[in-house]
Amino acid sequence: MLCINDPHIDPYFNLAAEEYVIKNFKDNCFMLWRNEPSVIVGRHQNSLAEINVDYIRKNNIKVVRRLSGGGAVFHDLGNINFTFIENVQNGKLIDFHKYTQPIIEVLQQLGVDTRFEGRNDLVIDGKKFSGNAEHVYRNSRVLHHGTLLFASELADLSGALNANPAKFTDKAIKSVRSRVTNISSHLEKPLELEAFRELVFNHMLNSSSKCKPYQYTEDDIAAINQLRDEKYSTWNWNFGQSPGYSLVNGLRTNGGHIELHLDVQNGTIQHLRIFGDFFNIRDIAELEQLFIDVPHNETAIRKKMDQIVLSDYLVNITENEFVKTMF
Q: Do 89 and 142 contact (CB within 8 A), yes or no?
């Protein structure tokens, strides 16, 4: 088994690294890594329905889709992530209990009573600090990864994932929110995050004579960066890959109340209706039609609005207000 203690903190790079390793390495691997503030959404989720768009934008939090299913999670530098990539036969899923056991052992050594609960969670005193998910590649390689909330900013976690479910109608998998806690709050003696990380990594190194440290080569990094740039940092992968959905959102403005109803398929707006008690000069149906087949992202919507005199359709309603209502 190769053991990789990855220093990169770019979530686009780190999610790309998992895909690169599962597809290009033949060895079993264990990886430890951290991300700067980001929301990592499950493969089958509607990204917009999982996040608080205003909070994400204000705090410059990245949104990245991962290969595995399950729900959305928040990462920051107070959170450590672990990954097992294993060769298996007939696409057999990794045993959640087996591959969370090393984490439990480390915490028990630190005097923390840790339990596995539900389908894929590790908890302390009934509060979740680790969620886990899996992905099968070509029935021969399985990826298992999990979070370890050690000293995360729980206010940011709550703010970033505080989506309004009433806005969306879709069949995408929804995240189930749990009461969460930081590992550091339950330690008998204070411990720095890096020291805890080393404990986990060394525990893996010492658990088997077959576990060998590995660092990415220049060729590895070049290939991961290419995958990062072409896939994991793109709007199409992170938002355009969302299952189809309908969105309803409203806003009170100086020009009156405005309410938008959107249907989105393959990341593009297929239908738009605009309601409210605003005043207009030109037929509002013209404005609705202009956004058909426009990608449902802020950059594309603002580019389209450069071609429109909005005040002809929505008197005393600003571009920023209209765009905000789109999400």
A: no
d(CA 91, CA 98): 17
The DSSP bridge partners found for residue 33 are 81
Helix axes 96-109, 193-207, angle to 10 degrees: 120
Length in residues, the chain:
327
**21 vs 86: CA distance, rounded Å:** 10
Kindly list the distances between the CA atom of residue 162 and the CA atoms of 156, 177, 321, in Å, as whole numbers in the listed order. Answer: 10, 10, 21
Helices (H), 63-179: 96-109, 154-160
In the chain, alpha helices (H) = 11-24, 47-50, 53-58, 96-109, 154-160, 193-207, 218-227, 235, 284-290, 298-305, 319-325
* Whole-number Å distance between alpha carbons of 198 and 179: 27
Q: The tokens of 310 are what?
A: 């909005």
DSSP state of 310: G
- Contact (CB, 8 A) for 186 and 129: no
Candidates 323, 316, 246; CA nearest to 291 is 323
What's the CA gap between 109 and 102, in Å, rounded? 11
Q: Give me the residues paired with residue 83 across strands.
A: 31, 145
Six-digit token pair at 198?
A: 């080393």
Residue 297 identity (one-letter amino acid): N
Name residues whose C-beta falls within 8 Å of residue 119's C-beta, 6 or more positions apart in sequence: 96
pTM of the model: 0.91
Task: Supply the pLDDT for residue 301.
Answer: 98
Amino acid (1-letter code) at residue 318: T
Positions of the chain with pLDDT under 50: none
Structure tokens at 69: 């299913």
The pLDDT value given to residue 209: 64
